[in-house]
Amino acid sequence: MSSEFSRRDFLRYSGATGAAAFIATTLSACSGGPASTGSVGAGSNKDLITAVIGYGNDQSWDPTQTASAFAMAGINHIYEGLLDTDPITREPYPALATALPTDLNATSWKFTLRDGAKWHDGRPVTADDVVFTFERILGPDNVLAGNFFKSWLQEVKKVDDKNVELVFKFPFPDAAPRLTIAKIMPKHVFSQAGAWDKAKSGMTMGSGPYKQTAHNPKSNTTFEAFDGYNGPRPATVKKMNWLTIVDAAARVAKISGGSAEAQIADNIPYANVDQLKQQGLTVEGGKGMNHMFLMFNTGAKPFDDVRVRQALHYAIDKQKMIDVALKGHGTASSSFLNEDNPTYKRASVVYDYDPDKAKALLAEAGVKNLTINLMAVNVSWIADCLPTIAASWEAIGIKTTLEPQDTAALFAKMDQFQDYQVVAAASNPNQFGMDADLILHYNYVPGGLWMKYSHWDGTADAKKLFAMMDEASKETDKAKRTDLIHKYLDFVAEQAILYPVVHNELMTAWDPKKLSGIRAQPYPGINLLQAKRT
After folding, report:
1. What is the DSSP annotation of 457-525?
2. Residues 429-464 pLDDT 10s
3. What is the DSSP annotation of 365-429?
4. C-alpha–C-alpha distance, residues 290 and 295, integer Å
5. Strand ranges across the sheet with 108-112
6. Which of 475, 480, 510 is nearest to 282 (CA)?
7. Pairing mode of beta strands 399-405, 371-377
8. 418 or 305, which is more confident?
9. Which of 214, 274, 277 lies closest to 241 in space, CA to CA?
10. Taking a C-beta distance cutoff of 8 angstroms, is the pair 31, 211 a contact?
11. Are residues 241 and 41 in contact, defined by beta-carbon separation less than 8 angstroms?
């Protein structure tokens, strides 16, 4: 694999922005079990949880290289990190490791592996597997997970078969929750030729409470309790069947009515919330960072001028967008972070609706008779927001055309560096974690695809930002570090290269008569590790 991602690779791991291209696959025996269809299981089987996921299951299942909502949710049930985190509080707990680190400011952490931990094929988990996984993450292939580790983690060393040592470049107190991203993978499986391509296509082999039994792209993925699991969060049901239904109406229908096949569904449309509540379902939202962002091509005039980028943000009537498109389930961005993030602070530049200021900035930049083609992913709620953007820009004299399209088609153009002006898409780095350093490294990283797409990578301003981020990462005093984070968040807001317009609320629905222990997530997907069938 080269150090540069191909378009296919990017689409497989960028599932946060929507459904990617179909990936035909034949799974090896590691996935096990006979093929099964999306119609498996009626609602009366108490040994089975049937779930509906509003995102595709046909993107990468390689834990080191995916942002797919469906795959990441499944991976959390199949694999373990040395430490994992609670899906809501994000507090770390020992998973494959036996204990949390005692000194968060140390420059190395040692972990002992859990006695009796086994892979789903029955072989023991060893320190070699841990080293193998981190060599992949820290290696030259630039897998996605590397963005969250390379700035602070020097290496991972084997002490003996049951013990490993993580060596840091400098003290990094936020490392504990970060370790959940590094799902440990068996060396004897994934060191084989072609195994990483099979992982992208759906092959799994973990040490977690559930093993994958079948994977049918664009249909469903099934799971079964792993009898050999002896960790902290054992399986609560014998089997799970997760259906992938991207179409909103079909997804709602699957969980509706007395004969509903599914007991839980995520990505519930706002228009269906009251209907499902009237049927006795619990419908709750999770407020997090899920957002629509605008990304500008700074290699194309006039978008190389910060005043133009700022003007286009000031021009958008965000409250109208929230009222009309999001039915009130949204918040106008006032920072790159959402307001519920622990590190949130209102940015020095906030793009409150101000069409007069937008006109003044365009005039100051000498821009007249601007015409914009806004390309966008065709995720349903994004598509609902686009008319407000067009109307807002037209109101300040900018002729605007909208071009929503399949995510695969859009990013094929981006990867070929075809000319474009502005892109609107959805994203949620909270799938990986909550801390600001992690969130910024999802989009703003030297050599990263988003920086290349925006043609900002390598500019003096980009280098300034990356230096600010590095300085904050190395600061161990929490108050000083937070101050440094706020400074670079202000810079990101001012530059408006890739920046949120609104943050929205994600809705999950479930039948409380059939499921307990459910908590709505503020990021796509579901977590059923503590759910019980009733």
Report:
1. TTSHHHHHHHHHHHHHHH--SHHHHHHHHHHHHHHHHHH-SEEEEEEEEEEEEE-TTTEES----SSSS
2. 999 999 999 999 999 988 888 999 999 999 999 999
3. TT--S-EEEEEEE--HHHHHHHHHHHHHHHHTT-EEEEEEE-HHHHHHHHHTT---SEEEEEE-G
4. 16
5. 108-112, 163-168, 153-160
6. 510
7. parallel
8. 305
9. 214
10. no
11. yes
Query: What CA–CA distance (Å, rounded) separates 281 from 510?
Result: 6
Residues 480-525 pLDDT 10s? 999 999 999 999 999 999 999 999 999 999 999 999 999 999 898 9
CA distance 414 to 456: 14
CA 345 to chain centre: 22
Strand partners, 51: 242, 264
- Cα(287)–Cα(309) distance, integer angstroms: 27
DSSP state of 531: -
Taking a C-beta distance cutoff of 8 angstroms, is the pair 493, 349 a contact? yes
pLDDT digits (tens, 9 = 90+) for 354-412: 999 999 999 999 999 999 999 998 877 888 999 999 999 999 999 999 999 877 688 77
Candidates 129, 264, 265, 131; CA nearest to 534 is 264
Distance CA 243, CA 223 (A): 11
Please state the domain extents for the chain.
7-265+511-533, 287-505
Place of tokens 């014998």: 238
Q: Which two tokens stand for residue 9?
A: 């690779």
CB atoms inside a 10 Å sphere around CB 236: 18
- 251, containing H or E segment: helix 248-255
CATH of 287-505 among 3.40.50.300, 3.10.20.540, 3.10.105.10, 1.10.10.10: 3.10.105.10
Token digits of residue 313: 């943000």
Q: How far apart are CA 192 and CA 527, in angstroms?
A: 30
Contact indicator for 16, 424 with CB cutoff of 8 Å? no
Structure pTM? Answer: 0.86
Q: What is the mean pLDDT of residues 277-283?
A: 96
CA distances from 419 to 298, 312, 449 (A): 11, 19, 16
**Do 52 and 507 contact (CB within 8 A), yes or no?**
no
Residue by residue, DSSP assigns 73-105 as HHHHHH---SEEE-TTT--EEESSBSS--S-TT
Check if CATH label 3.40.190.10 holds for domain 7-265+511-533: yes
Are residues 526 and 284 in contact, defined by beta-carbon separation less than 8 angstroms? no
If you compute the radius of gyration of the chain from its CA atoms, what whole number of angstroms results? 23
Q: Which residues of 494-531 are buried (b: 16+ CB within 10 A; e: fewer)?
A: bbbbbbbbbbbbbbbbbbeebbeebebbbbbbbbbbeb
